[in-house]
Each structure stands twice: as structure tokens, then as C-alpha cells.
Amino acid sequence: MPDRFTGKTAVITGAGGALGRAVAEGIAREGGQLVLFDLSEDALAETAALCPGAVTVPGDITQAADVQRAAQVAQDSFGGVDLVVAAAGIIGPSCSAIDVEEEDWDRLFAINVKGCWLTAKSFIPQMRAKRAGSMVLLSSTAGMIGSPFLPAYSASKGAVVQLMRSLAIAHAPEAIRVNCVCPGTIESPMHRSNVDRFEGEAREALMKRLLAVHPMGRFGTPNEVAEATLYLLSDAASFTTGVALPVDGGRLA
Amino acid sequence: MTRFEGKFAVVTGAAGGIGAATAARLVAEGARVLLVDLQDKVAETAAALGQPSLALDISDADAGQRILAAALEHTQTIDVLVNNAGMGGSGPLEKSSDELMARIIDVNLTATMRITRDLLPHLTQPGGSIVNLASIFGILGASGTTAYAVAKAGVGQLTRQLAGDFAPRGLRVNAIAPGVVQTDMTADYFKDPRYRALHMDTTPLGRPGQPEEQAAAIAFLASDDASFITGVVLPVDGGYLAVRYLPPDAV
């Protein structure tokens, strides 16, 4: 592959997570400059070590001042961003919706939904100034269909898709494209934290059920999600906006 | 670009437009491609790319077997099948004769099923990839183009259907849904003020797509970059399907 991102600057939120890190590595590999944002300084340092020249900004995605600070760093270091990847997110409680605790609900929505909104609010103006740009929000198959096991997560990821559509339409005249990727189950720490809530037979049953709903008969890898994200970010997708692209081994088909 | 180094692809409807752009893209990324089309002009398009070609009507009963025979002169297995051939010329139901309906559905839908079935034993498994051409008009209702829209909706459903059937053997099946694209097939539509108002003005990116942009999406889905993507109908439509849209200065 040629260097699709030479001369481009990208910000990645949740850059310490498995998916954010895979996207960051891909952009760095193809010549892009990076601003990496995450709550965990350790995770951020690990990703930065894989991406020469990356600038890191530790911060809380739910706090406007923190996200705005990252935008200022992007402006000061690179003259603003061309690409935005909103990968910060958590999976939240696994129980029926009516059993979710209020504070868990609020925290999940603050990170998964408000975080995406703050990211758009802080970084789209930089792309607008360039009259070009591409943003990818990480949703989920759970954002497209209901989930009895992760109802709060599902609701939050559905909100991300609808936010994406509204951003896409609002900023299309400015030649800024906005899309989502919707991963199915991916081999990642988030997936493991989900299944590790259970033990023994219950864990086995959950794993079996998750595999069974993926027609390809396996889980995806962070790199497969990253490749789809890089495609949507790149000029190869120049006529695609407002789309939620499943990366799910056929789950939603 | 070497995503298709050592790979063999079959592209139908490859004489011009999206098909020719797709063949050119795959060749540029290292593939050998058999270009298939109804029009004899396909030989020129193929020759310019240094690739083999085959002129036939994809709705002929033996089209699949003839494509297969032509492909097997160059390869053991077919890694990528792009079912791009299609035709417009549909109309509202009351003006659709039996012949017109049958022809539109045959070329746009049934031929895709038949050719996929006939090539299936020779598609690379695991690792192969099929990309079909659906349409925005097969997803939203589109007034005045009944048989075409129904056939393209069928292509979307065929894509989901086959994705499930073929996933266990590692063969992926996806489609793109082009929006308004500037090709010879659409040149006449672009002159129609009603078409422009309905479909061009309502495309948020504010311009028609180019065949090369459709080809880039097809190449992505056909490549290993999309190795966990199957059963997807990917809009390449400038945002057309995301909203009910009029430009800010329209009203």
C-alpha cells in the first residue's frame, strides 16, 4: 500500500485501547502525524512507543476542557487535524436495562456518547477551516440491533450512529465526511472483560453464543477494524459519508 | 499498491464506467483480470490494460460456463468476482411490458445468481471475495424505475443470503450501493431536471460520484483489508441514504 496519510494529521481518542492503538499504528505506518488522547497515561505511552513522532495528551473524554486542550495541542503542533477517530468507549454493565444503576448509565453515556460529541465539537472546526476532512466514530453491531445483555452499551452505540448521520449531513457541504464502523465481537481486552464477568460453564456458554452469531465462525481482530477505519478515513472513500459500516464477520447480514 | 498481487479477478460489465474503472484499479494493484461485457468494446478496454476479455450477454444460459472456461485458461482459481454488469432503461409499472420486466430482472439479478453459482466451485475458498453491485434505488423506494429497483433490492438480499451460506468456507460476499455516478449509462438522466432535483440536489456531498470512487470501494471490499466484512451493502453515495436532504439554499 502507498502512504495514504502522508501530510495528514489525525487525532485518536481512546488511543490506549486495542482498536485505537491498531488505528494509530496504521496511520503512523502510512505517513500520518498523530495526536493521541486517552485517560490512561501508561496505555498512551505504549501506543506512542509504536508511533514515532506522535504527540500524547492524557485526559478525560467526558471533560470539555480536556478534549479542547487536545485540540489546542493539535493546532499548535500540526496546524490542526485532517482526520478524527473517536475510539474512546467502555462496555458498561451487563444486565437487563431495568437493573442498570443510574451512575453506571450516566458514566457510560458520558464516555460513549458525550465523548463523541465533545470530540466532534472540538475538532470539526479545525477540519472546517481546511474545508476537508474525514471522521470515523467507533460504534458497534450493538448500535444497530438490540442487546438483552448489554442494553446500555447498545443504546449508547445506537446514539453514536445517529450522531454520525447528523454530523455527516451538517458538514457534507464543507467536504467533511463522517462515518461509523460497527465491529462485531473483536479479540480485545474489552471483549475479555465482558466474558470474564462469568466463570466456568456460564463463560463457555457466552463464548459459544457469541461465536455462533458470527457466520464467519470466528471473532475479528483489532487490525481488521483498523483497516476498515483507515479505508473510511482515506481518499479511497471520497464519495462515502453518513455510513455505518459493519466489520462483523456477517453478524448483521 | 500490491493488494491483488498474484490474484485473479473476473469483472462483468467491464467495457466502461464502473466496471472498467474497477478492472483498472485491480490491475493497478497487481491483479490479472478477465473483463467481460456485452459490448465488443470490452476487447479494447482489456487490451489497454493488457488483460484478457470475453464478449457475451451475461443473461445467456451458458454465460457462467463460458466465463469459467475463459478464466481457467489463465488461472486455477478465481480470487475475486465482481458482478458489475447491469442495465437501466426501467420505467413505471404501468409502462413495463412483460419483456422489459423480465429483461431488467434477468440482467440485473438472475444473471448474477447464475454466474455466481457457475463460478462457485472455482472461487478461492477460503480467501475469495465476491462484490455485487446493488444501488441506492434498491434500498429506498425510487419512483418510476420499478423493475430496476426491485432487481437491485434483490441483489442486496442475494448478498446477505450468500454471505451467510458461504461464510463458513471463508468466502466473503458484499455489495456496494452506488449513488449518483457520472457514467455513459447515466449521461441522459443527468439532463433530466426531475432526476437532477430528486437525486443530484439531494446528494449531501453536492456532486455526482466518479466511477473511480466506486472502484476504490469495490477494491476495498474485495481485498484482505476487509477480511472480517461480509454480508454488507456499502453505500458509496455521497451521503444520499443517510438523510432526507435538501441543500441549505434550496428553499
Tell me what the structure shows.
Chain A has 253 residues and is α/β, with parallel strands linked by helices. Chain A has 8 helices and 7 strands, in the order βαβαβαβαβαβαααβ. Chain A has helices at residues 18-29, 41-50, 64-78, 102-130, 151-171, 189-195, 200-212, 222-233, and strands at 9-13, 33-38, 55-58, 83-86, 133-138, 176-183, 244-247. The longest helix of chain A is centred in the middle third of the chain and has 29 residues, at 102-130. Chain B has a 7-stranded parallel sheet with strand order 3-2-1-4-5-6-7, with helices on both faces. The longest helix of chain B is centred in the middle third of the chain and has 22 residues, at 98-119. The N and C termini of chain B lie far apart (45 Å). The A-B interface holds A 1-2, 165, 168-169, 172-173, 175, 177, 184, 215-217, 220-221, 224-225, 227-228, 230-231, 235-243, 245-250, 252-253 and B 1-3, 159-160, 163-164, 167-168, 170, 179, 204-206, 209-210, 213-214, 216-217, 219-220, 225-232, 234-239, 241-243, 245, 247-248.
Structural class determined from secondary elements of chain A: alpha/beta
Specify the biggest β-sheet of chain B. 7 strands, parallel
Structural class of chain B: alpha/beta
Strand order of the largest sheet of chain B: 3-2-1-4-5-6-7
Low-confidence stretches of chain B: none
**Approximate shape of chain A:** globular
| End-to-end gap of chain A | 29 Å
The beta-strand count of chain B equals 7
Mean pLDDT of chain A: 97
The number of helical elements of chain B comes to: 8
List the chains of the largest interface with their residue counts.
Answer: A-B, 38 and 42 residues
The Rg value of chain A, from CA coordinates, equals: 17 Å
Largest sheet of chain A: 7 strands, parallel
The strands making up the biggest β-sheet of chain A line up spatially as 3-2-1-4-5-6-7
Query: What helical percentage do the residues of chain A reach?
Result: 40-55%
**Rg on CA atoms of chain B, Å:** 17 Å
Q: What's the oligomerization state? A: heterodimer
Q: Give the SSE string of chain A.
A: EHEHEHEHEHEHHHE
